[in-house]
Amino acid sequence: MQGAVTASGSKNAALPMLAASLLFEGPAVYRRVPDLADLRTLFRLLQDLGAEVQVQGDRVQTEVPSHGPTEAPYEVVRKMRASVAVLGPLLARRGRARVSLPGGCVLGDRPIDLHLKGLHALGADLQVRHGIVEAQAPAGGLRGGTVYLASSRGSTVLGTANVMMAASLAKGVTVIEAAAEEPEIEALAALLNRAGACIHGAGSHRLEIEGVEALHGGECEIPPDRIETGTLLLAGALTRGRVRVNDCRPDELTVLLDLFHRAGVPFAQGGDGGEAGLRPWLEVQPWPNPPRVLDVATRPFPGFPTDLQAQWLAFCTAGEGLALVTDTVYPDRFMHVPELNRLGAGIRREGNTALVVGPVRLSGAPVLASDLRASAALVLAGLVASGQTIVRRVYHLDRGYEALEEKLRQLGGRVVRERDPESP
Ligand code: EPU
Questions:
Q1: How far, in Å, CA of 106 to CA of 104, rounded?
Q2: How far apart are the C-alpha atoms of 145 and 118, rounded to whole Å?
Q3: Tens digits of per-residue pLDDT, 210-264?
């Protein structure tokens, strides 16, 4: 593959940033909002909560009255777990929230105990009955508190977002210890601070939030999607192509670049200030010798993201040697393994580790996508598999990749979308 594409706005930054509009007095304007099924689900939920949401291309304007409904029903949360990000904002601005408990998903057990622990530390009364979280702020409103927000698998991204949003309107100071350090938390904190919040330490493991009386929307841009960028670069590396992703954030992908370096996949980067007017870009280049595959264990940021684990596994089939790919964040996130094996990958799974021995010649076959990143890995594998690969249930892909097949086609990939009879 060869060519250049532009990164879309980040799904995982956009979701909490748009949920934050529930906190704002007056209108808020978001630019570079990706056109994704998950965002459309969130818009519908915001509208059900009384928000006005106007979408014009990648510009979205929201306005949310201070009073209105406070329920995120099972039908929505079941479809998209990130709906839980309305819990903190509803509680802070409207004093109560009823949010269905998300339960597990194909990635395995995904509890929200830390979200509840954090909101409890702000004085909220929380009851879980009949699969619904019923949250109520105390009479005088939420008040600051200190909370340690990690489990044995590390911190929680959306949990940190929820507590940070609620604490922005609480009385007094909140300290979140073991906060998630992901760039999406930094983007959310920057948005809240521009709206009048007082948040220090975003991007570190300790957040200090001084509550304010009110927050006022304003205008912001969703940052580029680091997982989409990583997926496109891995597509380039897998196909021994020259693929450039424009307007991305290289500093958020240093772990992947380090792996490319050690694997022997050449890459270049630029645009960060040196070349006038050009926004940062990253490019993978054709490898002179087959890459060495490397062991990888997923970790919270700045470690290797679990959201690139499936795509990394697909890339390893092109490399030489034996690699152990371990997911410490979601130990059961391996539904793509049997499907990659239908293409001849020969991956063995033991607990939270997949073992791949490359290089293998993949051969096209019909496969089933189980979730968003698994679908991306199967599409990537299909690019190098001989013959035709048909990925079914590709609606998973549309939850989090904006026009992926168009971008891959732009790079010379032979990908077409057909109507999927299994689409819901
Ligand atoms: N966890 C708990 N208790 C909690 C919350 C999380 O034990 O209350 C555990 C989880 O089970 C997991 C770990 O902590 O083992 C991390 O989960 P986290 O809460 O950070 O995940 P999340 O915020 O629900 C976001 C992304 C995911 C991404 C994870 C990890 C969004 C909308 N989702 O989920 O993205 O995998 O962080 O980086 O931001 C995807 O885009 O494909 C995706 C699944």
A1: 7
A2: 9
A3: 999 999 999 999 999 999 999 999 999 999 999 999 999 999 999 999 999 999 9
Residue 28 host element (H or E): strand 24-31
Q: Provide the CA 4 distance to its chain's centre, in angstroms.
A: 23
Q: Please name the amino acid found at residue 250.
A: P
Strands 173-177 and 206-210: antiparallel
**pTM value?**
0.97
Q: What angle do CA 391, 295, 284 make, to 5 degrees?
A: 65
Bridge partner list, 296: 325
Q: What are residue 252's phi and psi, to 5 degrees?
A: -95, 0
Distance of alpha carbon 422 from alpha carbon 24, whole angstroms: 39
CB distance 82 to ligand 1 below 6 Å: yes
Number of H helices and E strands in the chain, helices first, is: 14, 24
Q: Is 119 in the pocket of ligand 1 (CB under 6 A)?
A: no
Tell me if residue 248 is catalytic. Answer: no
Q: Which residues contact 405 (CB under 8 A, 6 or more apart)?
A: 379, 415, 416, 417
Mutate-to-test residue for ligand 1 from 10, 12, 106, highest number of ligand atoms within 8 A of CB = 12
- Say how far apart CA 73 and CA 84 lie, in whole Å: 10
Q: Whose CA is nearest to atom 44 of ligand 1?
A: 307
How far apart CA 78 and CA 106 sit, in angstroms, is 12
Nearest CA to ligand 1 atom 4: 112
Protein residue whose Cα sits closest to atom 16 of ligand 1: 156
Ligand 1 atom closest to the Cα of residue 84 is: 24
Each residue's pLDDT tens digit, 89-145? 999 999 999 999 886 667 777 889 999 999 999 999 999 999 899 999 999 999 999
Ligand 1 center to 268 CA (angstroms): 31
Helix ranges restricted to H, 264-371: 309-316, 336-342
Q: Is 252 in the pocket of ligand 1 (CB under 6 A)?
A: no
Is the C-beta atom of 150 inside 6 A of ligand 1?
A: no
Cα–Cα distance measured from residue 317 to residue 339, given in angstroms and rounded to the nearest whole number: 13
**Strand, helix or coil for residue 203:** coil
